[in-house]
TrEMBL record:
Protein's recorded name: Phospholipid-transporting ATPase
Cited PROSITE patterns: ATPASE_E1_E2
Topological type in the membrane: Multi-pass membrane protein
Organism whose genome encodes this protein: Gasterosteus aculeatus aculeatus
GO biological process terms held by the UniProt record: phospholipid translocation
Active site as annotated: D407
Domain P-type ATPase A: 124-183
One Pfam family this sequence matches: E1-E2_ATPase
Annotated CDD domains: P-type_ATPase_APLT_Dnf-like
Subcellular location field: Early endosome; Endoplasmic reticulum; Golgi apparatus, trans-Golgi network; Membrane
GO-annotated cellular components: early endosome; endoplasmic reticulum; Golgi apparatus; plasma membrane; recycling endosome membrane
Main localization (coarse): other
Keyword field: ATP-binding, Endoplasmic reticulum, Endosome, Golgi apparatus, Lipid transport, Magnesium, Membrane, Metal-binding, Nucleotide-binding, Translocase, Transmembrane, Transmembrane helix, Transport
Length: 1132
């Protein structure tokens, strides 16, 4: 009874056992003892907040920031005790910071909600009450029968019941789940495959029992019990029966399936990580610096309190004649008075902690993120996609990346295979205009390859056309509105469309069709080809499936003449050892040549059987296939027995088309000191081939392998062998290949050994990876002792986990849906854009925000240290040095705009130089500009300048510090725009103008005016102006000398490269220097127009003709490298 109450009250988790029972069409037993299991609904949630938890959760996250929590405490202290300053001075800035940040984060999460609603609100069809009903995806329940049509994605994990095919099969592509674009065949059980209408499905009585939700994409264990004529028939269900959410139906008109796992319990969702708040290294450094400054603040407050009581030990100072104590003050507790004085000093000095730092940082990140979207170098014209920023909190992290973890399929490649060359009987051929042309001849040669192919050439093409698992659809592809990514895996011609379980097979069958041997039909056991217009029918006797151990596949066919023939194709190492005839050595050389060109190679062979041999082969296969024990081992023995004594026919070379400039991008990342790992769910051979062709692995690199490890001991021994090899051959570069199974063993018991091997390898390739394994690899390096900054980039749902796990996640707007883009921090259209994103934008963002952080601490030290020194001259009476208006406006008006504009437009080096010299990225790596040494320099500089301000002013006249703060920033600025000039000198001018108006006029709404006419009187003195100039020179001159000294004697690579920017190039406007759209329209033209209206400037710089501006190189049509050249007004 208690158990029932808990379940109904929602106390217990919904799953009470290791299995779940699902009644198809939710036809539950009618007895009164059955209690339905509770399952998750079908909603997908990638957002972080809800309308109910937004305020408490956001406030909790914001008050984790030390400065926010500190100012909250200060605000409460000001409310509780009598302090020198008003509570408004702390409360108002804190409220502003919290509000602005909450609005920004709320908006970003609203975008995630919007994307989730699109997915959850997608229309689907389910069978209910005897009819097909349209509903929303989020309304699907476990047990519902769902109909999915061709090219639609599955809205939940479904067990296949039936399809429009008589045999109940269907074809799907799981590109968005495991990165494989190949077609996979799924099967229904015979008892349900006949239910192809809604009425038949409504009458179906069936129960599915299966395991509870599991993140493993490749594992499903269950069974279905079908009741027919009061007889229960039990059939097993495996992975081949489960249609995963996110996969897409191909080459099948429609299917019906029962929902097994829904919503966040689907395998795709279980491979997502919870979206956590990512915090950049700069923000962590800021918190560390804030703790140090908090220590300085406490030290100053305690010292001031102690000195106050030491000073007041004398009666004449404790109770002077002009400030007699009240009776209550004389009788108050000394301890409470000490605490009160300490808190009062704490409030007096609290401005040493810069709360406005967070506001400025938030504004800098938010405004700065627009430059990524405005950058035309990151715009992909073919797909009309520009770079997208989903979170601006990590801009500076782009400049700190040390490891890049990238997906392969769709990220490095285009998912397109093209036949390039082949070797037939020792002769190399290439395809030219639909003809096979021997090496050394052109297609016009009379002796070239004519359509009348004979002998080995024709047999080779027939083998290619018949030895595969390609499926044919005779439907015309739907009109998809010119989507450039549509039907990437299909081939359409003459009302016929090819789909393959391997991209290589599809490319080879298409090539054979173009040459003249076309695969036209596959029906049951009949395979039909058309050889130069002549139809030939073959009977498929046996299919010897591909597996990773054999690395080959075969078909046994009955020819039109009645003979039996075996066609085999596979990897060179898996086929050539079993060949006994043919041009073996020549073909081996050709295969090596193809591989050196980066082509994916396959070797093709055949074997003709006599009637007696075929009878023996058929006997072996039948015995192995019907074995109840050790079936897999017996099948392997049978396959090896059959696939021998082969006649070599030739080899093929297929190119997996890489994305543009992938090799150059990976090389640029290497030069920048960034290690690149490729994590893919693809097969070992495919992954290695692509790694070689894209430059991830070099031909001269020593490739180490950690593959197919079966036990912990074997894995450990192999790792030790690899470590020894690396130590023995430490001169050459090493690359490591590891598969998912071996990786699991390595991470379970031998994590340190595995990491040691990986650190000594220049490149690492992980294949056959499950999505969560990708995330585990990223987490392994994130949490390693060195704590490097990691970046993950991918394009499919299988990459979401690692994108969320990495410090920076980047989604590719590719062909595998938008799951990766929705869950990423940044999104780009092509992998090549990663170079500019890191080397230029990352570099700029980091140096800007690093200087911003250091400058804020510097200027607050300059500002508040004179307040501390002033206490020595006022008997520590907690008298404030500054008027309250100046106290409020110092950070808001006098010093905030110059550093904000600096942090938006500063360019230490021209973008062109940063892209052409990736090594400059190393200068800012490992958070070098926010190291403790740099922080100490800025802090000591602030204290030195504060002492000069105070004692210089004390000796000569009186002075404020806003002049000095902006002067120091002017020294740090390398890239001056009109906006920098306007805010830097304008802030100083505003200080003078404001002081004149504030102190020169009697304002009736002010209770007191302590500064009345003080500033006017001060500036009327020539000696005051002289003192101002002397103090400024005294402060800045040592820093100028230091900069000149270091630049000439110990210049950094960045400083050396600054001279590469052409001094003759006219200065670009701040807008033009960062972004420009097509047709001469500036990416921030609205901002520019507004500023020009305010300042009264002339026409748009972007439209100015015959001036030097940034343009694309006309010679190479390369939009990824910026050039400077005079252009017309119609271009940008």
């Amino acid at each position: 009874m208690l158990r029932w109450d808990k379940t109904n009250l929602g106390v217990d988790p919904p799953h009470q056992s290791d299995t779940r029972t699902i009644y198809v069409a939710n036809r539950f037993p009618q007895n009164g003892h059955y209690v339905p299991q509770r399952f998750a609904d079908n909603r997908i949630i990638s957002s972080k907040y809800t309308i109910w938890n937004f305020v408490p959760k956001n406030l909790f996250e914001q008050f984790r920031r030390i400065a926010n929590f500190y100012f909250l405490i200060i605000f409460l202290v000001q409310l509780m005790i009598d302090t020198p300053t008003s509570p408004v001075t702390s409360g108002l800035p804190l409220f502003f910071v919290i509000t602005v940040t909450a609005i920004k984060q709320g908006y970003e999460d609203w975008l995630r909600h919007k994307a989730d609603n699109e997915v959850n609100g997608a229309p689907v069809f389910v069978v209910r009450s005897g009819s097909l009903v349209q509903t929303r995806s989020k309304n699907i329940r476990v047990g519902d029968i769902v109909r999915v049509a061709k090219d639609e994605t599955f809205p939940a994990d479904l067990a296949l019941l039936s399809s429009d095919r008589a045999d109940g099969t269907c074809h799907i592509t799981t590109a968005s789940l495991d990165g494989e674009t190949n077609l996979k065949t799924h099967y229904s059980v015979a008892e349900t495959s006949v239910c192809q209408s809604v009425s038949q499905l409504e009458a179906l009585q069936a129960v599915v029992e299966c395991q509870q939700p599991d993140a493993d994409l490749y594992r499903f264990v269950g069974r279905i019990t079908v009741t027919q004529d009061e007889e229960e028939i039990v059939r097993p269900l495996g992975q081949e029966s489960l249609l995963l959410r996110g996969a897409r139906l191909k080459n099948t008109k429609e299917i019906f399936g029962v929902a097994i796992y829904t919503g966040m319990e689907s395998k795709m969702a279980l491979n997502y990580k919870c979206k956590s708040q990512k915090r950049s290294a700069v923000e962590k450094s800021m918190n560390t610096f804030l703790i140090i400054y908090l220590g300085i603040l406490l030290f100053e407050a305690i010292l001031s309190t102690i000195l106050k009581y030491a000073w007041q030990a004398e009666n004449k100072w404790d109770e002077p004649f002009y400030n007699q104590k009240t009776e209550q003050e004389r009788n108050s507790s000394p301890i409470l008075k000490f605490i009160s004085d300490f808190l009062a000093f704490l409030v007096l000095y609290n401005f040493i902690i810069p709360i406005s730092l967070y506001v400025t940082v938030e504004m800098q990140k938010f405004l700065g993120s627009f430059f990524i979207g405005w950058d035309l170098d990151l715009y992909h014209e073919e797909s009309d996609q520009k770079a997208q920023v989903n979170t601006s909190d990590l801009n500076e992290e782009l400049g700190q990346v040390e490891y890049v973890f990238t997906d392969k399929t769709g990220t490095l490649t285009e998912n397109e295979m093209h036949f390039r060359e082949c070797s037939i009987n020792g002769v190399k051929y290439r395809e030219v205009n639909g003809k096979l042309v021997p090496e050394g001849m052109n297609d016009d040669s009379p002796d070239g390859c004519t359509p009348q192919l004979i002998g080995e050439e024709l047999l080779f093409l027939k083998a290619v056309s018949l030895c595969h698992t390609v499926q044919i659809s005779y439907d015309q592809p739907d009109d998809l509105g010119g989507d450039p990514f549509s039907h990437a895996n299909g081939f359409s011609s003459n009302n016929m469309e090819y789909y393959a379980s391997s991209p290589d097979e599809k490319a080879l069958v298409e090539a054979a069709k173009r040459i003249g041997v076309a695969f036209t039909r596959c029906s049951g056991e009949t395979m039909e080809i058309r050889t130069f217009g002549k139809s030939e029918k073959y009977k498929l006797l046996h299919l010897l499936e591909f597996d990773a151990d054999r690395r080959r596949m075969s078909v046994i066919l009955q020819t039109p003449s009645g003979g039996k023939v075996l066609f085999t194709k596979g990897a060179e190492s898996a086929v050539l050892p079993f060949t006994t005839s043919g041009e073996i050595e020549k073909t081996r050389l050709h295969v090596d040549e193809f591989a050196l060109k980066g082509l994916r190679t396959l070797v093709v062979a055949c074997r003709h059987f006599s009637p007696e041999e075929y009878a023996d082969v058929d006997k072996h296969l039948s015995a192995a296939r019907t074995a109840l024990q050790q079936r897999e081992e017996k099948l392997q023995e049978a396959f090896n027995y059959i696939e021998r004594d082969l006649q070599l026919l030739g080899a093929t070379g297929v190119e997996d088309k890489l994305q543009d400039k992938v090799q150059e991008t990976i090389e640029a990342l290497r030069l920048a000191g960034i290690k690149v790992w490729v994590l893919t769910g693809d097969k070992h051979e495919t992954a290695v081939s692509v790694s070689l062709s894209c430059g991830h692995f070099h031909r001269t690199m020593n490739i180490l392998e950690l593959l197919q490890q079966r036990s912990d001991n074997d894995c450990a021994e192999q790792l030790r062998r690899l470590a020894r090899r690396i130590n023995e051959d430490h001169v050459i570069q090493h690359g490591l290949v590891v598969d998912g199974a071996s990786l699991s063993l390595a991470l379970r018991e031998h994590e340190k050994l595995f990491m040691e091997v990986c650190k000594n390898c220049s490149a690492v390739l992980c294949c056959r990876m499950a999505p969560l394994q990708k995330a585990k690899v990223v987490r392994l390096w994130k949490t390693s002792p060195e704590k490097p900054i990691t970046l993950a980039i991918g394009d499919g749902a299988n990459d979401v986990s690692m994108i969320q796990e990495a410090h920076v996640g980047i989604g590719i707007m590719g062909k595998e849906g938008r799951q990766a883009v929705r869950n990423s921090d940044y999104a780009i259209a092509r992998f090549k854009f990663l170079a500019k994103l890191l080397l230029v934008h990352g570099h700029f963002y980091y140096i800007r925000i690093a200087t911003l952080v250091q400058y804020f601490f510097y200027k607050n030290v300059c500002f508040i240290t004179p307040q501390f020194l002033y206490q020595f001259f006022c008997l520590f009476s907690q008298q404030t040095l500054y008027d309250s208006v100046y106290l409020t406006l110092y950070n808001i008006c006098f010093t905030s705009l110059p550093i904000l504009v600096y942090s938006l437009f500063e360019q230490l080096v021209h973008p062109h130089v940063l892209q052409n010299k990736p090594g400059l990225y190393r200068d800012i790596s490992k958070n070098s500009l926010l190291s403790f040494r740099t922080f100490l320099y800025w802090t000591l500089l602030g204290f030195c300048h504060a002492f000069i301000f105070f004692f210089g002013s004390y000796i000569l006249m009186g002075e404020d510090t806003s002049l000095m703060g902006n002067g120091q920033l002017a020294l740090e600025t390398h890239f001056w725009t009109w906006m920098n000039h306007f805010v830097t000198w304008g802030s100083i001018a505003f200080y003078f103008i404001f002081s004149l108006f504030y102190g020169g006029i009697i304002w009736p709404f002010l209770h007191t005016q302590d500064m009345y006419f003080v500033f006017v009187q001060l500036l009327s003195s020539g000696s005051a102006w002289f003192a101002i100039i002397i103090i400024i020179i005294t402060c800045l001159f040592p820093d100028v000398v230091k900069k000149v000294f270091y630049r000439h004697l110990q210049p950094t690579s960045t400083q050396k490269s600054q001279s590469l920017s052409s001094p003759q190039t006219p200065t670009l406007s701040c807008v033009e220097s960062l972004c420009c759209y097509q047709h001469g329209q500036s990416g921030c033209s609205r901002l520019a127009s507004l500023l020009e209206q305010v300042t009264g400037a002339g026409g748009s710089h972007c439209h100015a003709s015959s001036r030097s501006n940034r343009s694309w190189s006309d010679t190479e049509n390369d939009r990824s490298i910026l050039t400077l050249s005079p252009i017309e007004s119609t271009h940008c």
